[in-house]
Amino acid sequence: MAVEQGSALVCLPTYNERDNLVSLLDEILATAAVDVLVIDDNSPDGTGSVAQHYARREPRVHVLNRPGKLGLGTAYVAGFRWGLERGYRFLFEMDADFSHQPRYLPELLRAIEGADLVLGSRYVAGGGTENWGLGRRMLSRGGSLYARTVLGLPYSDLTGGFKLFRREVLEAIELSSVHATGYAFQIELTYRAWRKGFRIKEVPIVFYERTAGRSKMDGKIVAEAVTEVWRMRWRDR
């Protein structure tokens, strides 16, 4: 499917990603016919200023500055709302640390032709991870298995954050009531889309461990996912 320029938006939350941002934006814009919204949570390293400078010379890049570190889930929700208000038909989630490679953007756009939500999946044939230790691999695979078991979802990678939504999905899943962050946020959006009957497709990606900056993963994110999955199930009951 040929996606017209101005119809797809990459939502790119940032917090202390100054070392990655310019090269990532360059690669995204060179790879796919998309616009980019940088959602910066007042990064102490000046990432927001770098983004603003870039946006002044590149009309396809926009910046949404937030007053502080408010959580990944709320950053994506803010980005989705910004994009929906401006008429974008397709909206991406994507990390700002090169873990999600821009080269996959065209593949996700092709896949959306027969789907409403496309998941970039590490755990289908052709997908994988690079430079992860055994503990990290077990945590990620175990998290997806746990969520599949509790919620009855048929998808292999529920904790990944490289996704493409049709706007109709985001309009239907009640963004105002989504409060989870991290793994739980990713699980919840896919679960809500599935419960609404939308078509969901997984396409293989390789996830690369970041080479610059520090990971935002911590124990609180994992603990939230464990409890939120049960809340999702019992809310539906």
Fourth-tier CATH superfamily name: Spore Coat Polysaccharide Biosynthesis Protein SpsA, Chain A
Q: Please give the share of residues in helix.
A: 40-55%
Note the overall shape.
globular
**Strand order, sheet with most strands:** 3-2-1-4-7-5-8
The largest β sheet comes out as: 7 strands, mixed
- Under the CATH scheme, the architecture is Alpha-Beta Complex
Describe the structure concisely.
By secondary structure, the chain is α/β, with parallel strands linked by helices. It has helices at 18-31, 47-57, 72-85, 105-111, 134-151, 167-172, 182-195, 219-236, and strands at residues 8-14, 35-40, 61-65, 90-93, 117-121, 128-130, 163-166, 200-204, 206-208. It is built from eight helices and nine strands.
Sequence-ordered SSE layout with sheet pairings:
Blueprint: E1 8-14, H1 18-31, E2 35-40, H2 47-57, E3 61-65, H3 72-85, E4 90-93, H4 105-111, E5 117-121, E6 128-130, H5 134-151, E7 163-166, H6 167-172, H7 182-195, E8 200-204, E9 206-208, H8 219-236
Parallel strand pairs: 1-2, 1-4, 2-3, 5-8, 6-9
Antiparallel strand pairs: 4-7, 5-7
Helix pairs in contact: 1-2, 5-8, 7-8
Fold and architecture overview:
The protein has about 240 residues and is of the alpha/beta class. The protein has one domain (about 10-235): Spore Coat Polysaccharide Biosynthesis Protein SpsA, Chain A, CATH 3.90.550. Helix content is about 45%, strand content about 20%. The chain contains 8 helices and 9 strands. A 7-stranded mixed sheet has the order 3-2-1-4-7-5-8, with helices on both faces. Helix 1 links the parallel strand 1 and strand 2 (about 35-40). Helix 1 (about 20-30) runs parallel beside helix 2 and helix 7 (about 180-195) packs parallel to helix 8. The radius of gyration is 17 Å and the shape is globular.
